[in-house]
Design brief:
Helices cover about 35% and strands about 15% of the residues. It has helices at about 25-30, 50-60, 75-85, 90-95, 110-120, 125-150, 165-180, 195-215, 225-230, and strands spanning about 10-15, 20, 40-45, 45-50, 255-260, 270-275, 280-285, 295-300, 305-310. About 30% of the residues are buried.
Length: about 325
């Protein structure tokens, strides 16, 4: 029997695809040796990508014919600024503070304890209620920004494109998430009545996603052990990488390092041999817990800390 070609296709670990529990442990990722605890996580071959912003970048590079990113520098700058606004600028953090205290999951001590460990703050209902007014004020300002700014002239999409672009994806997701969460937005403050253009934009985006799903091949759902085997039997696909010789941190290829996010999930550090370090990305090689293989874990530079293992106790 001839040897089979390695499986270098995409595996997405998500709440609705390669199904993952909402709380730890996540045995599939643990078997791969991945400590990063946020979802989604994507693998292509034995390369594992953490953080949505890096996942989007890799998909754009791998599938240029279907890329949604802008080609003009000024439009790429708008995409980047919208990414920063939503993630680093506090829009998502404020949106998360609008999770209704009545949400059934908040009655589950396992869930609230998990989220306290994840965020480093209290998830008691009384504390969530205290945060809501300030978060609501911040999100109203964000809705104002879109209603009176980008969308004020009646355009359908942020960059006046024929369909949704990467700029829309970078901006819409926290608003789309809140709009679909019953009880998150008080209608007397934030609704279609006050922000008709923003809500129409969210609705158009939702319909565009549904249309794209209906015309796309149906993804295959793998069971946990099958997904792990699928990945560990694959090859690496991201091979043209190295450590920048002018790297400000002074780290060298082959050095043992740790990498972890700074904004949430910061107690979970991935550790391994440094394979690549650029201005945008860090890559470590780490052993799997099952199968005796090695995977490469990729993280973005933004909002991640990278540290030599020998310096793990030092403050940067």
């Amino acid at each position: 029997m001839s040897a089979m070609a390695p499986h270098n296709d995409i595996v997405l670990f998500h709440y609705s695809s390669q199904l993952q529990p909402p709380t730890l442990p996540r045995e599939d990722l643990n078997a791969l040796g991945v400590k990063y605890r946020r979802i989604p996580v994507m693998s292509i071959g034995r390369d594992i990508y953490c953080d949505t912003r890096l996942i989007l970048q890799k998909l754009e590079e791998r599938f240029p014919d279907g890329a949604l990113g802008a080609s003009q520098p000024d439009q790429r700058a708008i995409e980047k600024l919208l990414e920063i606004w939503c993630i680093d600028g506090g829009v998502f953090a404020r949106a998360a503070q609008l999770i209704p205290p009545e949400l059934p999951l908040l009655n589950d001590p396992k869930f609230t304890k998990d989220r306290e460990e994840y965020t480093g703050r209290s998830w008691a209902k009384s504390d969530l209620s205290k945060m809501r007014p300030e978060a609501l004020a911040a999100m109203r300002e964000a809705f104002d920004f879109l209603e009176t700014g980008f969308l004020s002239d009646g355009r359908e999409w942020i960059l006046k494109t024929q369909g949704p672009s990467m700029a829309d994806i970078e901006a819409v997701w926290p608003f789309h998430w809140l709009q679909g969460m019953k009880g998150a937005l008080p209608p007397e403050i934030i609704s279609e009545e006050q922000y008709p253009k923003v809500f129409a934009w969210i609705d158009r985006f939702d319909k565009a996603v549904s249309t794209a799903k209906s015309s796309s091949p149906k993804p295959t759902t793998l069971k946990g052990a099958e997904a792990v085997r699928h990945i560990t039997q694959a090859d690496y696909v991201d091979t043209q990488q190295s450590v920048d010789e002018n790297e400000p941190l002074g780290l060298k290829e082959g050095q043992e390092i740790e990498v972890w996010p700074l904004d949430s999930g910061f107690r979970h550090h991935d550790r391994g041999r440094l394979v690549a370090l650029t201005s945008k990305e860090v890559v470590v090689a780490s052993p799997t817990k099952i199968g005796g293989k090695e995977v490469r874990i990729h993280c973005p530079r933004t909002n991640f800390r990278i540290q030599a293992v020998s310096e793990a106790g030092a403050k940067l």
